[in-house]
Amino acid sequence: MGKTTYKRLKGSQSFRQRLLLATLSSTPIIIDEIRADDMIPGLLRHEMSLLRLFETVSDDCVVEVNETGTRLKYKPGIIMGGKNLVHSCALTRSMGYYLEPLLVLGLFGKKPLSIRLKGVTDDPKDLSVDTIRNATLHILKRFGVPSEGLDLKIEARGVAPEGGGEVLCALFTLSALQFCPKETLFYFTFSFRPDPSTGTVILTCVGSGLINLSRKLS
C-alpha cells in the first residue's frame, strides 16, 4: 500500500463540516493549531464526542489527537451503519449538534442505521430534536429518502448539566436521490453504489424529467 496523503487544515472553525466532508470523500485530514492561542487550547468535549460518534458508525476509522488536543489526525473509514448502536453525547452541546452530520452519514452507510443517542435534547445553541424530527426529516423525504425507514423517536428529554435525554434515530441507506435545481422545471435522479475497494460511493445519474406543475399540492 502507498503512503497516505493528508489534506492539511488549520483552526477549529467548521469542525463538523470538515469531518463530514472528509468522511464522505474518503479524504484523510490533519487539523493543526486547534485553539492553540486560547486559555483552554485544543478540542472541546463535544468535538471529541463527535469523533467517537464517527468511529461508532464507521469501520477502520483512525483518530489521533496530540496531548494538548491542538492537532488532529483523521483517516476516515467505511461508513457501516448498523443496528442497536449507542452513543453518549457530551453534555456541552445538545443532540442536534450530533444529529445533523449523523443524518447525512447514515444515508451513505453500507447498512441501515439504528442508533440511540443519550444526553441533552434541547439547548439555545443547536437545533432541538423536535425541529429535526418535524422539519429536517421532512426535507430529507423531498429528496427521495425513504420515509418508511426514517424516524427520530424522542424517548426521554434532558437538559444541561445533568442530561438524561434519549432519542432513537433510524435511517435506511440511500439508493437514489432526487435533485431539483432552484427555479427550474426539471428534476434529476441519482443512484448510489458503494465501492468496497476504495471505501467511497459512486454517484450515477439514472434519470431526469419535467416537474408536473399542474398537480395539486396537499
Give me a quick take on this structure:
The chain has 218 residues and is α+β, with helices and mostly antiparallel strands. It is 23% helix and 33% strand.
Describe this structure in words.
The chain has 218 residues and is an alpha+beta fold. The protein has two domains: 7-171, RNA 3'-terminal phosphate cyclase domain (UDP-n-acetylglucosamine1-carboxyvinyl-transferase, Chain, Alpha-beta prism), CATH 3.65.10; 176-210, no CATH class. It has four helices and 13 strands. α2 (45-57) runs parallel beside α3. It is globular, with a radius of gyration of 19 Å. It holds the Pfam family RTC.
Number of domains: 2
- Low-confidence region ranges: 211-218
In helices, the fraction of residues equals 10-25%
Query: How much β-strand is present in the residues?
Result: 25-35%
Question: Which radius of gyration do the C-alpha atoms yield?
Answer: 19 Å
How many beta strands in the DSSP annotation? 13
Q: What series of H and E elements makes up the topology?
A: EHEHEEEEEHEHEEEEE
Overall geometry comes to globular
The CATH superfamily of the largest domain bears the name RNA 3'-terminal phosphate cyclase domain
Pfam families: RTC
Protein name: RNA 3'-terminal phosphate cyclase domain-containing protein
Organism: Brassica cretica (Mustard)
GO biological process, one term: endonucleolytic cleavage of tricistronic rRNA transcript (SSU-rRNA, 5.8S rRNA, LSU-rRNA)
Provide tags for this entry:
4 helices; four-stranded mixed β-sheet; RNA3'_term_phos_cyc; globular; UDP-n-acetylglucosamine1-carboxyvinyl-transferase, Chain; alpha+beta
